[in-house]
Design goal:
Immunoglobulin-like; three-stranded antiparallel beta sheet; elongated
Length: 78
């Protein structure tokens, strides 16, 4: 949908040099800064494995347990 903003923050667990998992946190909002409640946010790894979360009443979401790597992040509304 045009005009939506997905704000992301990524944090990795564990110390440097150790493999662990990370967490992706963010907020979905519209072009006017209004939060989007109930949006689905999906992180897709290079193998096509998906992890999904739904935004809460403040437009926030958390995707945890993500293995290190690159992800495509998608969202849907409704």
């Amino acid at each position: 949908m045009k005009g939506l903003l997905l704000v992301l923050a990524l944090s990795a667990g564990g110390a440097f040099g150790q493999q662990g998992t990370g967490t992706l946190k963010g907020q979905v909002s519209d072009q006017f800064g209004g939060v989007i409640v109930g949006a689905t946010v999906v992180a897709v790894d290079p193998n096509g494995v998906e992890k999904a979360a739904t935004t809460n009443g403040e437009g926030n979401f958390v995707l945890s347990g993500l293995a290190p790597g690159n992800y495509r992040v998608l969202h849907t509304i409704g």
